[in-house]
Amino acid sequence: MSRPLTPLDRRVHGEPLDDDAILALAEAPAGALVRAAAAVRDRAFGRTVTYSPKVFLPVTNLCRNRCSYCSFRRSPGDAGEWTMAPSEVRSWLSRAREQGCGEALLCLGDKPESAFGSYREQLAGFGHASTVDYLVAIAEEALALGLLPHTNAGVLTRDDMARLRPLNVSMGLMLESASERLCEPGMPHHRAPDKRPARRLAMIDEAGALGVAFTTGILVGIGETRRERAEALLAIRALSRRHGHVHEVIVQPFRDRPGIAMHPAPDPTDDDVVHAVALARLALDDEVTVQAPPNLHAHDEGALLGAGINDFGGISPVSPDYINPAHAWPHLSGLARRCDALGFTLAPRTALHARWAQPAFVDARLDAPLRAVARRLALAEPLFARASSEATA
Ligand code: SF4
């Protein structure tokens, strides 16, 4: 008589698991999860692992929040404070285009103009009344140069997102955690009002209602429990199922560095990271990409691939990882060789995963830029199936 199927067997065969089953898996050892997670990945994505050649534009590192693991943020007057001038942005975009990038990642601190008068004056000097005005101008410039914008500007209003949508193939906001406990005094999000889980979940929900293809994810190792990680993944899954807009979920490990409020703090163990990656693959629906940045895992791609990722995210030939500057991106040729040795093919992609190249998620004005980048990266052209009335609107 054959043994009854376990939840992992059922998941491998394509059956989604309910919340209770995922919460139970959160307490299981990593070894029990990784084989199933890799099998789910193989069935859903095969043995191709993708990355997006990008330029990382840290438009400003001024931020009104103070997450205790962050080395990126500054206040006006701090050493290392910056806001990119339009000329700098232009120069980086041009270099990125010359180096074959397809994505312009616009990444910045949260709501700086609500906190800092000097920043408002700087924006006015650039001819802009708000950060979103500036982001619109940068995105237009990126598109003109043949790069696809992806904006991650912290918590945005519905109106902000509606303005940015026609110029961005996707947008992002890391959920990081759904735990209110991490917002209590002494915890990493206590001094970060924009990290309240309800606020971030509300934005992800609104993005879905607007038809914005969305990137989100979790942070691993900032004091959360494995159960809390599972709860964050389930919250993402619920919104993804409501709107179908979440195209990728990042599993990003915390990395300690001098100068952060938490320092010294232990990095998450490799076992923790692998567990979180596998849990994400098992919790999320099959079509959603699970991504882990290779530069934050000591260039041990085998562990990440073994736990079920199908994507490395953005890798830049021109700009550093400003969020984790001590961790350089891997060279693509070496990464491709290592993937090959592990039985995987490394392949470029656009900033929007192909399955989301549909009218529901892409403004008609972005069809031609998306097609052009896909051609330049030698990809199959995205299929929009846009009705002719929409295409000419
Ligand atoms: S992690 Fe983001 S929101 Fe938090 S302080 Fe740093 S830049 Fe600001």
Number of domains: 1
* Contiguous uncertain segments of 5+ residues: none
> Taking all residues together, what is the mean pLDDT?
95
CATH T-level topology: TIM Barrel
Question: What ligands are attached or bound here?
Answer: iron/sulfur cluster
Secondary structure class reads alpha/beta
Helix content: 25-40%
Q: Give the biggest sheet.
A: 9 strands, parallel
- Give the number of DSSP strands: 9
Apparent shape: globular
Account of the 3D structure:
The chain has helices spanning 7-12, 19-26, 30-45, 86-98, 112-115, 117-125, 131-144, 158-164, 197-210, 226-243, 270-283, 301-306, 332-341, 367-376, 388-391; strands at 48-58, 103-107, 148-152, 170-172, 214-220, 246-253, 289-291, 311-315, 345-348. Strands 1, 2, 3, 4, 5, 6, 7, 8 and 9 form a nine-stranded parallel β-sheet that branches. The chain has a single domain (17-391), classed as Aldolase class I (TIM Barrel, Alpha-Beta Barrel), CATH 3.20.20.70. The protein is an alpha/beta fold. The chain is built from 15 helices and nine strands. The mean pLDDT is 95. Iron/sulfur cluster binds next to loops.
Descriptive tags:
alpha/beta, globular, binds iron/sulfur cluster, TIM Barrel, 15 helices, 393 residues, nine-stranded parallel sheet, single chain
